[in-house]
Every structure is written in structure tokens, then in C-alpha cells.
Amino acid sequence: NQNRVKGEYEALLDAADDHFDFPDFDENTIATTFYTSGTTGDPKGVFFSHRQLVLHTLTEAASIGMLPNKQGVSYGDVYMPMTPMFHVHAWGFPFTATMTGLKQVYPGRYAPDLLMDLIINEKVSITHCVPTILQMVLKEAQDRGASFNGLKMIIGGSRLTEGLAKAAMDQGIEVYTGYGMSETAPLISLTDFTLNEPQLSEEEDIARRCMTGKPVLMVDAQVWGENNQPVGTGQDNTGELVLRAPWLTQSYLKNDDAGKELWENGYMHTQDIAYIRPDGYIKITDRLKDVIKSGGEWISSLEIETILSLHPSVADVSVIGVRDKQWGERPLALVVLKPNCQDTKVDDIKALAEQAVSRGIIPKYGVPSQFKFVDELPKTSVGKHDKKVMREMYANQSEV
Description:
This protein is of the alpha/beta class and 400 residues long.
């Protein structure tokens, strides 16, 4: 529908002066500033210099350009962000798309019907979004009987569950994961595909796409234990992910104390719990403030969410810790059911977690003690699950 097209870039250029004198200034001059989404506390201001944004753009272009063509960027691609520009520079992609000369389409409102129209009519081939937006466009495509014909899509902002990844692949999307934060401008790691690796099973392929990925060029990523020292690789060596890269915010705006805490001992502290596999892949298991502490053991809310998302009736799920007199905290699963699946029973979904226990994927105490069906989950302005709000909603009750 061409009535939805507000303008063409070339028309804007025609109305502008042919001559422009770029001012001469120091490359370390601050170029951008914005605030974190505040999911783990009060929003904090981050800031980045022109030099940092150029280095981030060069690295992003090189890292994505080195991926096989069905995931990477090439000159013929058509780019459309499905992430707001205020969300960490739309992940830096508008800079990268401009530098590499891609056709760019900007949707304005993130309404699923509009997004689907633009994907089809403008032949969009690469995009990025949070899982919530992916769910919206998948439903829109399903309602239309449309497919995505190999659309390349990077998911970030929140965990890509295996259930959602499979649904996207079934509808023709080449989906994979990118990781970063407001503080990191944001790109830190990407799902890595190589042409010569052994053929993966469907289950292995989906699991790979949902991982945090390998650090991109110029990123030093380590996992530190409680003594602020690096630990070894492998699942048994879990700790906090810490980072160094040329484009990370150097502090917080007008909050030097928080900035010093962010950069304690010379590395940026992400507050993400992770381990690094021997092959270099990062696996984030949870946020420090989202880990459920039950009877002295840590339970990964993200791991449980991934398992429960595989149930065919589950549209969305979030797991939080609620107070428990005996164990301190126990997991509560908040589940949004798909339309026409309202007859689904708690035991049907709980059975998936119990099967994961029998397969050794999670411990027995990782099975949620309580399940609650809800119409929707609280989300932030950028579409992330707002677990801070969820914890507040259920803060004063151990029985739901």
C-alpha cells in the first residue's frame, strides 16, 4: 500500500543544499547519549564518542559480512529495523547499512500489519528485533498465509527461546542471536556459522541459534568468579561476564559512583551470569538479579523459560522467583497461552520441565512450584520482559 510510504530519501536530498561543510572537531567528542531501560534498577545515562561509533560500525559490518550469505550482509540486501532508533542506536545497524550502501526502509510505527506489508512490498531481506516483535510478525504472517522466504533476522534484547526460534524457522526466517547492552553500543557477540563445520541436527541447530554467540572482532570477553578472577571454560565454570572493547561507555552520565562500579578492576561488569564453552561460544544463563536463589542453589529462569516455550500451546512465558518460607525463593512460571489453547492444563506444561529433569537438563528443584496463566506479560518500552515489575506484582504473596 503506497499510501503508507511517507517519503523517499532522494526527495529529501533534492530539497537540501548541494554543499555542506562538515565541522572539524575532535573524534572523542560525545556523539550520542541515552538512558538504559531500567529493568534492573533506575535508568542510567550512557554516552558514546564519534570514534567509538565509527569503530563499532566497522566491526559490525566486518563481523556480519563474514557470515555465510544466508545469515550475513551483502550489497543486494534491503535493510529494515524493527527496533526503535532510541534502543541503542537501533543496534548500530543504520550506521552499518549506510556505510555499506544498503537500501533502507524505516517503518515508523511497529504495527505487525505495516511491518508485514513493508517486508513483502520492499523485499526486505535483513532486520533485527526483540522476541516480542518476532512473535507479532509471525502471527501476522500466519493469519495471511504468508512466508518470509529466507528473511535474515537477528534477535536481541531478550532471550530467544528454542520454541520461538523453531516457529520462526518453520515460517522461513533465518533467525539467530546477537548480544549486547545499552552500555556496549551494543554489539558484543553473534551466533557464528561456518561453511565447513559438521552438519547439525535440527535440535543442535536451533540450540546454536539461541546461544549468546561468539565475541565479535576487538571484544575481550571473560567470565569471572566471585574473586574477580577469570575462571576456566565449560559449564562448570559459571560466573559474571565481563568485557573490554573500544566502543563501551566509559561511565554513566552524572553518576561517577555507578560508573566506577561498572568498570571495577578494569573490565565492564555486565551483571549477566554466563560460561564460555571450549569452542569460544558464550552461554548466558541469567541476569544476576533474575537468578532464583532456592535453598542455597541458583536456578536459571532463562533455562526454564526455554524449556516451557517448547510447548505448542505457549505463546509467551516468563519465570520469576517468589518468596518461600522454606527455601527462600521458588520459581513461578507466568504463561501466556496461544489463542484457542485455553483448555491447556498446568500439568501439560509442567510435564515439559519434569521431562527436562529426567534428561539431566535441569535439576529437580528447577521445576516451578507454581504456574499462572496470564493474558499478557509486563514489558519495557523496547519490548523486553519487565521482571522487575513482575516481581513487584507478586512480592507480597508466596501462594499465587
